[in-house]
Amino acid sequence: MNTTAPGPGNPLTGAACLLRGFRLIARPRLRRFVIIPLAINTLLFSLLLYYLGDAFNSLLNWLLPQWLLEWLLWIVWPLFALAAICLLWFGFALLAALIAAPFNSLLALAVERELRGHAEEVDGNWKGILREVGRTLWSELGKLTYILLRAIPLLLLFLIPGLNLAAPLLWFLFGAWIFALEYADFPMGNHGILFPEQRRKLAERRLLSLGFGASVALALLVPILNFFVMPAAVAGATLLWVERLGPEQSVVSAPTAN
């Protein structure tokens, strides 16, 4: 057994895992596990964008007189669009992953079996999905607490003169780290690895993890492509687990009923 501590890894290798994830989810045996997360992505993004726009329009009508509103509209709406993109960039991805967590666990399991050459199919029936709900939602809530305790101080940096110049870069790096944690949870969780241990494993290969998370963050900014990022990121994180983070021989434990 190699007892040497792992190095930080190559960020380009992490980014390449996401690209390979896009190719993986196109394989015939994996497509059916992508349909539900993709549908959740599309519906949630559309609803959030619609309600954000409606709420913002109502707020402007309440705050400003009509004559001033018409004069400022050409300035205000582009600013709203930029703010909405930033909000959806981070919040949408995490909320979509929370809702689709049981399906993403099944996708991670199917991808791992595909990579390891297992012949058996993953049973994605409703009984198995329901059995995953408790574990995945508990894990997601733990991650949410972790995120909020760190996101709030980072957001406050935007309000502090001088420090606010570094805030966008720090926020992007924080987002990259959170996306790595978010999607690595699915393959690791299938092996019973809890969130504190997941953080430790990713921290040991921090550059590798940040490279993967940063590629997810950038892909989410690309229209149309962002709908496919979640399942591709699950597949990419599973690649990271199988090839870089996990033991050489790992027993895949199915979270589904046979």
Structural overview:
This protein is an all-alpha fold and 258 residues long. The chain has one domain (11-245). The chain has nine helices and no strands. The chain is globular, with a radius of gyration of 20 Å.
Tell me the span between the first and last alpha carbons: 34 Å
Major sheet characteristics: none
How helical, in percent, are the residues? Answer: over 70%
**Estimated share of beta-strand residues:** under 5%
Along the chain, the helix and strand elements come as HHHHHHHHH
The number of helical runs is: 9
Overall geometry comes to globular
Return the structural class.
mainly alpha
Beta strands, count:
0
Mean pLDDT metric: 76
Number of domains: 1
Radius of gyration over all CA atoms, rounded: 20 Å
Q: Poorly predicted ranges (pLDDT <50, ≥5 residues)?
A: 1-5, 249-258
Fold topology:
Elements: H1 11-24, H2 28-63, H3 66-99, H4 101-116, H5 126-157, H6 167-189, H7 195-204, H8 206-219, H9 225-245
Question: What's the short story on this structure?
Answer:
This protein is mainly α and 258 residues long. It is 78% helix and 0% strand. It has one domain.
